[in-house]
Amino acid sequence: MALFAAARQGRKDDVELGKGVWRRAHDRFTRGLDRYYQMLEGVEDDAVYNGLVTVANDLAALLPRVREVCARAQRQLPSTGQNIPGALTAVHRALSRSGNSLAAAAEAAAMSRLEGERWGIASAGLENVRRRAALVEEDVAEAERALKAAGLQ
């Protein structure tokens, strides 16, 4: 059953996001989010876990915004390959940065987990995760602003 749902979602993604740079930007963000959630597995310290889950939920709330930016960009300037439509270079740059920032947040979450388990000091690591997550939100907001500035929103 899940196989068919995944196939349907893939077709829906092809229609909305295309198969080019906008799809890849969306998928990269999704993979970063998955990576972050994987860091939660096995966290034994309740304080660390609760702090990381709160940040995870905030990051997950950004996914529909990323999808909307990518879908709008695809509707206006479709991409089927590696070439970034020139009018939307700033949008793609901000989306790429959001994926990188999300990967850094996942890495910070992993380090926070290790610090909490090893030293019992979760607060410093969690603050770093929150800072990284704030950068992700800023990058997504920048992509939205760049799309609007390009006159495509």
Low-confidence stretches: none
Q: What's the average pLDDT?
A: 88
Radius of gyration: 17 Å
Helix-residue proportion: over 70%
What is the makeup of the main sheet? none
The overall number of domains is 1
Strand content: under 5%
Topology, number of strands: 0
Distance between the termini: 37 Å
Instruction: Label the overall shape.
Output: elongated
CATH domain class name = Mainly Alpha
Order of helices and strands: HHHHHH
SS-derived structural category = mainly alpha
Report the CATH architecture: Up-down Bundle
Q: Number of DSSP helices?
A: 6
CATH fold-level name: Four Helix Bundle (Hemerythrin (Met), subunit A)
Keywords: Coiled coil
Protein name: Dehydrogenase
Coiled coil: 126-153
Describe this structure in words.
The chain is mostly helical and about 150 residues long. The chain has one domain (about 1-150): Four Helix Bundle (Hemerythrin (Met), subunit A). The chain is about 80% helix and about 0% strand. The protein contains six helices and no strands. The protein has helices at about 1-15, 20-40, 45-60, 65-75, 90-120, 125-150. Helix 2 runs antiparallel to helix 3 (about 45-60), helix 2 runs antiparallel to helix 4 and helix 3 (about 45-60) runs antiparallel to helix 5 (about 90-120). The N and C termini lie far apart (about 35 Å). This is Dehydrogenase. Keywords: Coiled coil. It comes from Arthrobacter zhangbolii.
